[in-house]
Design a protein that fits this description.
The complex is a heterotrimer, with one copy of chain A (271 residues) and two copies of chain B (201 residues). Chain A is mainly α. Chain A is built from eleven helices and four strands, in the order ααααααααβααβαββ. Chain B has a three-stranded antiparallel beta sheet with strand order 3-5-4. In chain B, strands 1-2 form a two-stranded antiparallel sheet. The chains are: A mainly alpha (271), B alpha+beta (201). Chains B and C meet through helix 1 of B and helix 1 and helix 4 of C.
Amino acid sequence: MSDTDTLIPAAELQIEPPLAIVQGAPYTRLPHDLYIPPDALEVFLETFEGPLDLLLYLIKRENLDILDIPIAQVTQQYVTYVELMKELRLELAAEYLVMAAMLAEIKSRMLLPRPAEVAEEEDPRAELIRRLQEYERYKQAAEDLDAQPQLGRDVFQARIEAPFDRPRKAPPEVSLYDILSAFKEVVERAKMFSHHHVQREPLSVRERMSQVLSTLSAERFTEFTRLFAPQEGRRGAVVTLLALLELIKESLIELVQSEPFGPIHVRSVNA
Amino acid sequence: MNPSLKNIIEAALLAAGQPLNIERLQALFETDPPGRDEIRAALEELRAECAQRSMELREVSSGFRLQVRQEFAPWVSRLWEDRPTRYSRALMETLALIAYRQPITRAEIEEIRGVSVSSQIMKTLQEREWIRVVGYRDLPGKPAMYGTTRQFTDHFNLKSLDELPTLAEIRDLDAINVELDLGGVDAEAEPDAQNEELYKE
Amino acid sequence: MNPSLKNIIEAALLAAGQPLNIERLQALFETDPPGRDEIRAALEELRAECAQRSMELREVSSGFRLQVRQEFAPWVSRLWEDRPTRYSRALMETLALIAYRQPITRAEIEEIRGVSVSSQIMKTLQEREWIRVVGYRDLPGKPAMYGTTRQFTDHFNLKSLDELPTLAEIRDLDAINVELDLGGVDAEAEPDAQNEELYKE
C-alpha cells in the first residue's frame, strides 16, 4: 500500500465532506435499545475506541450492512450516545462531536434536492462508508494480530542452563594509529567549524544516491562500509555519506545496527 | 552420546535463549562449518523430532527458535505471578495500522482510527521495540514515519510481515452502489472514477 | 499432541529458565495437582528420554533443571565468544584529545568535538585504565582534568608521551585513504603495504 493511498482521504475531506450511510435501523426501537443499566453505562461507553467504533457498533447492533444505512436514524442514535458521553467523559466529546457534525451535514445534504447530473457524480455518504470500512478492517486486523501466538503469552522461549565457563569478553583492540587518525579527524573538524568553511562537493550527491540505490537490495542487507570506495578518498566518502543521509531522509533505505558499535547494515525499503 | 549436527544445534538454541540464524549456527564451528544446506537439513530433522515433544522449532525474523508449544500455555503461564500484559484495543489498533501500512505517520493513523493516538501508546510500542521511526514524511513539520521491527515479528511468532493475517477485503464501490440502490434518496448515485480508485488496494 | 504430565513438566522447565522444585511443579495445576510420586515418576521418564538428546535433567539444590550436556561445551560456548568489537568514533576521539591535549576537562573535549561526551565513554576509558583524573581546573565547579596513564603508554609501547607521533607526521599519512572508517573495521578497504604495518601492533 503506498503512501498516497493514505493521503487521499484527507484531501477528499477538504474538498467534500463525506456522506454517510447509516441505516440506523428501526428508529422506533431506539429508546429500548439505548437502555443500559446506569452502573454499566460508563464501562459500556469506554469500550468504544472512538466515533467510528461507536458508529460501527450502532450499525452492527441493528444487523445492518454498512452500505445500507439510513443516515437520519443512525445520526439520532449516535447523538443520543454522544450526549451520554458528554455527561460522563467530557474529554472524549470533541472527536465525537466532529462526527456528529459530519453526520448532520450528510443528513442535510441528502435532504437537499440535487440536479440529476450532480447526483450521478457523488454520493454524500461515500466518504463515511469508506472511513467506516477502512476502520473496520484495521479493527479486525488488530483482533487478528492479538490472536497471533505471542511470545510469553502463548508460546515461550525455551532456555536452559549451559553450565560451563563462558569466555570473558575481551576489550577492543586499539592501535596507536587509530588514536592518531581520530585526533587528526577531530582537529580538522574543529578547524572546519571555526572557519565556517564549507566546501562544495564536486561530485553529485543525487547521482550517488542513484548509484547507492542500484547496488542495494530490499531482500538482503549490505554492509555499510561496502558502499564506500577507498580510491575516491575523503571527498567520495563524504558524497556517499550525504547520499545515504538523503536516502534515509526520504525513507528509501534503512540502516540497521544490531548492537552498539557493531557493523551497520543497509537495505532499500520496499515502497 | 555422539554430538550430531542436529544435537549441537538443539543445544545451542536451548542455551542461547534467543533465536539464532544460520550464520550464527555456522559460527559454532571453529573449523569447517557445515554448509547452509546441511544446517537446514539438521534443522528439519530437529523440527520433526520435536513433533512428540513439548517444544517446537519455529523460524521467526531473527532466526530459529525453540519454543514451548501453545498447548502448554495453561500450565506454563502459572509459573509467573503476573498475568501476561493485555494490551488495550487502542494500542493493538495502532500497532496493526503500523504493521500493515508502514511507513505511516501518527497523523495517518489518527485519520484512519478517527481518534487521536496517545503519546503513551507510541512510547509503549517504542519501548517494547516493536516499532521505530523509519523516516520522515516530506510534509510541513517533517512528521516521523513508523515501521515495525524484527522484535515485533519475533514476538508475534512470525517469520516476516508476509505472514501477517491477510487484511479483510473492502468491497469496491461498484458493489456498494448496487446495494445503495436499495436505499432511498441516493438510489441513482454512482461512483465516479475517482472514488473507485479509493477502494483499490 | 496430548499434554502428558511428562511433557507439561518438560514445558515448564524449558520456559522457566531456572530450577523448579516439586511444589512449584505441582502448582502448575489449578485443580487436582498430581502427587509427589507422580511428579517424580514423570521426572524419571523425562530423564530417561533425554538420554538421546542434547540436554539432561539434573537435580540441584533449588529443584530440577534441564541443562545442556557437557559434551556440547565446545560448540555452545562459542555462542558467547566475543565477536570482534571496536570502539566508537566518539570514544576514540575523546581518547585522542586526552592523549594529545592533556590535561583536559570534559567540557574542553566537548568544545573541540562540538558534541557532548557521554559519561559512559569516560567510564569505559577509566575502566580500561587508560585515562585518569590528574587534577581539577580552577573554574566554577572545579571540573576534573584528565590525562593518560602509565598503562596507556605501556599498552602502546611508548616510553613517554613525547613519542606520540606529531600532527605533521599524521598528515603524511593522509595520502593513504584509510580514514574511511565511517563505521566498523574497513575490512573491504584495501590497505596498502604501509597501512598494513600501521594496523599491526
